[in-house]
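From the pipeline queue, job 12 of 40. The input is one protein chain; the requested action is below.

Action: predict structure.
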Amino acid sequence: MRIYTSLLFTLLLSLGLVACSPSKNNQIIDLTKAKWLDLSHSYNESTLYWPNNVKGFEHTEEFKGQTPGNYFYSSYTISTVDKSIDFYS
């Protein structure tokens, strides 16, 4: 039993060392030549919603101005309708 445990430990250690060893195919990526891909989009009253959405997009200003500690602070509430789909009906 002890020899099997030793063999198993040696095998696992060897596999771990091989898996963690550096590859010969490692490529260094030059980020100075990389280009940004902007995936952002507007999220406002022109955003498309489901056709049966009556309420649409709501953006409410809760507070905007100086606080008693003389800091500028702004707070908004954003509300949209979430469309849920019942796949089991």
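Job complete. The mean pLDDT is 78.
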